[in-house]
């Protein structure tokens, strides 16, 4: 379309590959390759082994995986509930108030996650709300961080909703709660699952706030990967990282199946 | 009206309790030095320190340079995917989405294997030339962080760009082409104006995310590269200097939120 001659097309594609492969494809392949190796001092890794994976799927690594999955699931569900509520309630408000709600809920995107971690640490390290040292402080910080993303994507979907459906339901005598549960939320289901996937992925990879907060008995995967690479165990760290990526992708895939079934309705 | 306001209250109250109130405590603590009382001492101490000024400068130039790099690279790659499509271009676009769901520090981890002191590139060099060490020693310098940030954040620019390109009527390109415009001119006069809102949106998001990036810097593990989020972490966790950490946090929040607010005002004016 833009380039017509065959030679020019091949030249453009060659430049694309030269930029794309080393920058984007290579890093993921390298982590995958390193997770099966014991040495890497040449072009290709050497000392192929699966021992890294045996280490990455038992003991503290397995515990970190469940920790990450539980944290991400809890934070996503909480964030989805609060974000959806805020998006639905905000959409019903006058423009002036709606802007305030939108601005408040977008704020956690702009605030550095390290600072969110610090603020949660400062606020919940003393009574009456003593959460420091428990798993709840990690889940709380993750929830705060991902709520903004849940709110953003759900409120974008709410403004795209066709009001004809809820008006039809209301004109037939459905009460507001029936309209919400039987009409609006089912129509929003595809974007809700998309938002849940986004929140889950973000929480699985969250490192900055977690580093400020995690108690010794609640160590998520990213912290474990950092600890491994920090003490020089790069290859074990890679295997744990591959486990992290695989777990994230599996959950995202499962959520996308929910979405396709919902959109058939 | 009042009932509607009442319904909006619970989520806002939760946000206030778990996000705004802690943030206010950080601001409060930044005025309370360890010696007691309320004063500006933490601010004057932090602003006077060399480490803070270096971190501020490093943070800003790294973020600006990464954003420019992401915009240029993202624009070029999106152009090819959208307008010079090749078999597999769709798969590449989907790969970009997958890339977004991985944490940033994976890139630094990968770069350690590619350009690290005994990594792929240096290993190939020493194998070929017989030298004792390779030429790639930039990983622990700001350039390593820059490379990682450009790699990780470019997809954030490409996603809105690809969405904008998919809505562009290709008849415009054909018309411009049939009137004799060559590819560079079509890009400049037809595609670029259409892409500006998406570029502005992606670019400002990336700028804020780069200012706040922590994982990449932490994994780089370089003593010479300290950014503001890194300084917050090291002051609070490693030195237990909470007033100092709070001061740096306040400065970081002001820069990031200021820029983000500016972006939202500008993009609303532009109608994007």
TrEMBL record, chain A:
UniProt KW keywords: Cell inner membrane, Cell membrane, Membrane, Transmembrane, Transmembrane helix, Transport
Membrane topology: Multi-pass membrane protein
Gene3D superfamilies for this protein: MetI-like
Protein family per UniProt: Belongs to the binding-protein-dependent transport system permease family.
Major subcellular location class: membrane
Transmembrane segments: 61-88, 100-124, 136-158, 187-214, 234-255
Residue intervals of the ABC transmembrane type-1 domain: 65-255
Protein known as: Phosphonate ABC transporter permease
Subcellular localization, as worded in the UniProt entry: Cell inner membrane; Cell membrane
InterPro entries: MetI-like, MetI-like_sf
Domain of life: Bacteria
GO biological process: transmembrane transport
GO cellular component terms listed in the entry, alphabetical order: plasma membrane
Stretch forming the signal peptide: none
From TrEMBL, chain B:
Membrane topology summary: Multi-pass membrane protein
CDD domains documented for this protein: TM_PBP2
Predominant location: membrane
Keyword Transmembrane helix attributed: yes
Membrane-crossing residue ranges in chain numbering: 60-86, 98-118, 138-158, 195-222, 242-263
Compartment(s) where it occurs, according to its Swiss-Prot or TrEMBL record: Cell membrane
GO cellular-component term (any): plasma membrane
A Pfam family it matches: BPD_transp_1
Single GO BP term: 2-aminoethylphosphonate transport
ABC transmembrane type-1 domain sequence ranges: 56-263
PANTHER family: INNER MEMBRANE ABC TRANSPORTER PERMEASE PROTEIN YDCU-RELATED, INNER MEMBRANE ABC TRANSPORTER PERMEASE PROTEIN YDCU-RELATED-RELATED
Protein family (similarity comment): Belongs to the binding-protein-dependent transport system permease family. CysTW subfamily.
Name the UniProt record assigns to this protein: 2-aminoethylphosphonate ABC transporter permease
Organism: Streptomyces alanosinicus
């Amino acid at each position: 379309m833009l380039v017509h001659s065959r030679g020019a097309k091949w030249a453009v594609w060659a430049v694309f590959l030269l930029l794309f492969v080393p920058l984007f494809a290579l890093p993921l392949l390298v982590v995958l390759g390193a997770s099966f190796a014991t040495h890497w001092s040449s072009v290709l890794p050497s000392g192929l082994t699966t021992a890294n994976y045996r280490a990455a799927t038992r003991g503290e690594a397995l515990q970190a995986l469940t920790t990450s999955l539980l944290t991400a699931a809890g934070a996503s569900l909480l964030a989805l509930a609060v974000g959806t509520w805020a998006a639905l309630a905000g959409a019903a408000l006058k423009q002036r108030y709606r802007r305030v709600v939108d601005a408040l809920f977008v704020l956690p995107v702009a605030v550095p996650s390290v600072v969110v971690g610090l603020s949660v640490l400062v606020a919940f390290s003393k009574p009456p709300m003593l959460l420091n040292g428990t798993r709840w402080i990690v889940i709380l910080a993750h929830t705060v961080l991902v709520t903004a993303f849940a709110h953003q994507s759900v409120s974008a979907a709410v403004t795209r909703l066709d009001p004809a459906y809820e008006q039809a339901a209301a004109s037939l005598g459905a009460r507001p709660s029936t309209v919400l549960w039987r009409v609006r939320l089912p129509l929003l289901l595809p974007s809700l699952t998309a938002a849940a996937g986004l929140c889950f992925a973000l929480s699985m990879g969250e490192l900055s706030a977690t580093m400020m907060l995690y108690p010794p008995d609640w160590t998520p995967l990213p912290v474990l990967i950092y600890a491994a690479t920090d003490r020089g165990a790069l290859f074990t760290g890679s295997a744990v990282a591959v486990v992290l990526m695989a777990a994230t992708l599996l959950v995202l895939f499962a959520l996308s199946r929910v979405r396709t079934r919902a959109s058939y309705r | 009206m009042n009932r509607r306001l009442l319904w909006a209250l619970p989520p806002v109250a939760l946000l206030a309790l778990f996000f705004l109130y802690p943030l206010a405590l950080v601001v409060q603590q930044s005025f309370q030095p360890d010696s007691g009382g309320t004063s500006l001492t933490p601010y004057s101490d932090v602003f006077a320190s060399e480490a803070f000024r270096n971190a501020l400068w490093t943070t800003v130039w790294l973020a600006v340079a990464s954003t420019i790099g992401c915009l240029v690279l993202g624009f070029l790659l999106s152009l090819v995917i959208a307008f010079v499509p090749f078999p597999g271009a769709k798969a590449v676009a989907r790969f970009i989405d997958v890339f977004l769901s991985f944490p940033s520090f994976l890139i630094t981890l990968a770069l350690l294997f590619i350009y690290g002191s005994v990594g792929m590139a240096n290993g190939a060099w020493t194998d070929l030339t017989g030298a004792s060490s390779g030429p790639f020693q930039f990983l622990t310098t700001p350039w390593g962080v820059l490379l990682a940030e450009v790699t990780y954040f470019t997809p954030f620019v490409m996603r809105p760009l690809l969405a904008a390109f998919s809505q562009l009527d290709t008849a415009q390109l054909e018309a411009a082409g049939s009137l004799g415009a060559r590819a560079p001119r079509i890009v400049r006069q037809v595609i670029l104006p259409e892409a500006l809102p998406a570029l502005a949106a992606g670019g400002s998001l990336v700028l804020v995310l780069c200012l706040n990036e922590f994982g990449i810097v932490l994994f780089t593990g370089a003593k010479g590269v300290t950014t503001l989020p890194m300084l917050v972490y090291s002051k609070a966790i490693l030195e237990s200097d909470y007033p100092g950490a709070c001061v740096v946090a306040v400065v970081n929040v002001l820069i990031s939120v200021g820029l983000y607010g500016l972006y939202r005002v500008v993009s609303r004016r532009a109608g994007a």
